[in-house]
């Protein structure tokens, strides 16, 4: 006679095992639909400063559901808990939206650990002084490579045009099709504004190039806003190495990166540089397997393309310089 569950009803082996998958859930996973979303503007010692869509600045921690996943500046997050932004309150980050881009760097080339620094940026502005400090093309090239790799559009901003001519740098970077902006004290920033509007643009540059001067000119009153953020961290000045995202009055964001002085690019692959030079890919496909495309590379189809006029030699020279920047 068949009894329901008869088989193995007294079978120790079958029923003593913990039934991991059939245990009833004690708690339903909460549904965060309708919960406020915010942008991470800075990170300081495990505390995340988030700007709600309504303009409220909220301090938050990571909820346990986030686990070990990193939350970085530029991330779009869902908040739970107290999102009033009142002093002493703490919200919880319960969801991190999928990132459109991640800008990474390794601190230097010896450090192969890649650190994500900014999420969801679509532009990267390399701020370089034309003098004082002297421009370093190697540095510009490395940052360009990092931008191409992250599929973030680079922009070159040449400051201190009152001290030296930009002609040489413009000639060097024009073949890359990178927008180039020059500034000087009191210069009209309309071109800068229009390139930044409705984008999320990360600013990188060496100390002293005039990045703060530029940010202050772009965002009136930001001195005060920076001070507010540092006050809330309990320190007199903003000493965090975190990036700081600043909303632009006309729409869009700029992300200032005080910590990024060097730009290790040990995580970048050759293929992503070739991919960044879309017009070169069709030629490179004709190269011998494993071709590094450098000067003297045997049978490199890029040389042939230049020889028969299909490719501008300056463009190839720029591509090779980019590749050399990290080989
Ligand atoms: N001649 C000239 N000086 C400038 C220009 N822009 C900025 N400076 C000066 O350059 C110096 C450095 O400017 P900052 O804006 O502090 O440079 P920074 O890149 O923010 O430097 P850190 O704060 O150290 O990261 C200051 O003395 C500025 O007044 C410019 O277009 N021309
Ligand atoms: Zn080649």
CATH architecture of the largest domain: 3-Layer(aba) Sandwich
Question: How many individual domains?
Answer: 3
**How many β strands by DSSP?**
13
Rg calc = 26 Å
Total helical segments: 10
Largest sheet: 6 strands, mixed
Helix coverage percent of residues? 25-40%
What is the H/E order?
A: HEEEEEEEEHEHEHEHHEEHHHH
Round the mean pLDDT to the nearest integer and report it.
Answer: 81
Strand content: 15-25%
For the largest sheet, list the strands in their spatial order. 10-9-8-11-13-12
Which hetero ligands occur in this complex? Answer: guanosine-5'-triphosphate, zinc ion
Helix/strand structural class: alpha/beta
According to CATH, the fold-level topology of the largest domain is Rossmann fold
* Gross geometry: globular
Pfam family, one: RsgA_GTPase
GO biological process, one term: ribosomal small subunit biogenesis
Domain CP-type G: 110-263
Enzyme class: hydrolase
Describe what this molecule looks like in 3D.
The chain has 327 residues and is an alpha/beta fold. It has 3 domains: 37-96, Beta Barrel (OB fold (Dihydrolipoamide Acetyltransferase, E2P)); 102-256, Rossmann fold, CATH 3.40.50; 270-324, Ribonucleotide Reductase Protein R1, domain 1. Helix content is 26%, strand content 22%. A 6-stranded mixed β-sheet has the order 10-9-8-11-13-12. A 5-stranded mixed beta barrel has the order 1-2-3-5-4. Strands 6-7 form a two-stranded antiparallel sheet. Zinc ion binds next to helix 9. Its EC number is 3.6.1.-. One of its GO terms (cellular component) is cytoplasm. Residues 1-32 are annotated as: Disordered.
